[in-house]
Design goal:
2 copies of one chain form a homodimer.
Chain A (H helix, E strand, L loop, with lengths): L6 E6 L3 H13 L4 E7 L13 E2 L3 H4 L6 E4 L4 H13 L3 E4 L2 H18 L2 E3 L10 H7 L6 E7 L2 H13 L3 H10 L8 H4 L2 H15 L9 E2 L7 H9 L3 E10 L5 E10 L12 E8 L3 E8 L3 H16 L7 H5 L12 E8 L12 E7 L4 E8 H13 L3 E4 L4
Chain lengths: 399, 399
Amino acid sequence: MTHRKNLTIGLFGFGTVGRALFDLIATTKPSGVEIKTICVRSNSKERGVTANFTTNPDDIFNDPDINLIVELIDDAEASLFIIRRALQKGLTAVSGNKKMLAAHLPELIELQTKHNGTLLYDASACGSIPVIRNLEEYYDNDLLISVKGILNGSSNYILTKIFKEGISYDEALRQAQEAGFAESDPSLDVDGWDALSKLVIITVHAFGTYVEPSRIFTFGISNLSNADITFANEKNRRIKLVGHVEKLADGRICMCVVPQLLSQDKYIYGVDDEFNGVVIKGLCYDKQFMFGRGAGGFPTGSAILSDITASQYDYRYEYKKRNSHAGNLPEFTEDVHFRIYYRYVRPQDLNLLEFDSISEKYTSEAYNYVVGITSLRALQAAAPELRKRNVFLAAYPRD
Amino acid sequence: MTHRKNLTIGLFGFGTVGRALFDLIATTKPSGVEIKTICVRSNSKERGVTANFTTNPDDIFNDPDINLIVELIDDAEASLFIIRRALQKGLTAVSGNKKMLAAHLPELIELQTKHNGTLLYDASACGSIPVIRNLEEYYDNDLLISVKGILNGSSNYILTKIFKEGISYDEALRQAQEAGFAESDPSLDVDGWDALSKLVIITVHAFGTYVEPSRIFTFGISNLSNADITFANEKNRRIKLVGHVEKLADGRICMCVVPQLLSQDKYIYGVDDEFNGVVIKGLCYDKQFMFGRGAGGFPTGSAILSDITASQYDYRYEYKKRNSHAGNLPEFTEDVHFRIYYRYVRPQDLNLLEFDSISEKYTSEAYNYVVGITSLRALQAAAPELRKRNVFLAAYPRD
């Protein structure tokens, strides 16, 4: 049986998650795990901990003792630079930077193969929920139908406030910012970009296929108005921001990040506050649901620590689905049609989006809406315009 | 990167799960997986499938082509015999027999080490929910506080009927039997023995410690009366049968299988029908919840198939917690005190069980109950008598 390898860590970044990881290791003292050097952007801050800080990455990369790179910085470009350098040296690296990963996974997978390095990033999708490792290890491609989930804690916190406390979007956003669940520039969270990065990563491990983020229709909740909230309440539904990948009958996959009008019988209807929840649907096991804290220093720090202890046992993603179906991976498609709710103010904004059919139409002085069938292709074509206008839309599945 | 190994399977057993696995492989055609020979107790039945049946285990064990043993028979003794023989030959074996596993895990772990065989059994605990592999791979001992869950689908189906449809225990049991969710002798399910086996297996992978099933207090729902149902409804709670292992502040672990009066804010309160749900609690990630189908041919068959495809990549349990904490494993303790509801009919049956204190007492002509603090030690001491009498008890945690 294998034994734990000793790990000497070079840590990049000492923000919320970096600090939480540091405290976690100090408190739980996992055997054979030590942070030797911490590389930060500026060494002038008073950090209140005793550790070996540096601003020079070489102090980590040229230290022969250091055998694990943990990268917890915000800047996606700098993050890519660090991870590339680690993998080129054949080191093991742990990263939580979903934006960087979503943009560069194919290159990073190749680098691992070429230099025999290892990259782990379970913390990047849904914080403490072990989604990636479960998809990698457990759910076989052949049986997997879809993965669907609430992948962003901040936007979910806001939507929960709106639908449980009956407050407006602006008020809910303000409360989320006060509670530390939304950034001062919340666009990454509320416009769906963070969920999109996670969906791209999840899809690689669920179906093997990598799809560039820019190809995937993504629409957030920042235009959510009281009219939309009223519509949802009248239909006895709640709006959640959902990332979704599904294998169609023809073997192709569709993906999107879009608000959904969910009825009460859906598992993710009850995923509240800053929590994340993922539903994995398969041919035989029906639906599985995983639920946990998706954001915050300690939940994310503990997911990073799980990656660290996994690497003590030389764990690595095998990219099974990507490798075993190479050359025959599911293709990405936008040819999928479904029902949406589309709310607009200026009458001409109805023409932004091509509908196959419209089944309901409401007009008033203040705003208008339609319910109708459209496609991912039409949505993606209209996306740049939709994001500029005062319109809101949500998938509106039939019960 | 590793490649899929070809597997030629010798299958023991062709009951509900064996048949589901056969159909699953025929339908999904996983690459490199073939069932060569099926060993059954009697070859006289008409099975309606084209396959190579035998009644002689040697036809499997002496076949040099067969490199994977899948054992899906009910009889725990015969199951042990097959798994021992497979492991002694250094083969890989997949088993779903929780009773056998719970009784013999230490021996089977040793056999794996000694002969370099591999035993996988994710299907044995909670069917399609990947609990064992997640505990093994993801949740580090040092951070793990407790695992608690609804581990038996049949008893949960009965309890759901009772609390959602307001029917009696006997009527709910009858409906469960009709729906195929309970055996004609339901004792294994409703008296908690099935959940107990799963709890023992889960604990080995959660904390490394093996505890003999007979040492663990186990009490089921077969004595549940209308009085108990009324009590639960009045307190706005539902009764669920819960398996529970928890690490105490002193590092020891306590375990039990016992009905619980759950308030609505508990994750497992909403796990209904034949579903299973497991809550994993950790120091930093708070609580994680996994939910899925725990019983039935196809969900279990797909869990078996997941073990099979995992073994294509030479996956094996590392028994990390057991090995890395060897000699220093958490000890099992009964020194844990908690509040219970205890209902009895004959006044002298109150004396069966030692209470630290009693906070409520109700007496009537028809029945009596108390609410009070007792210990696992007192419960386990009284268990043989409690099971014989018309009494019911449930953990009654404070809100």
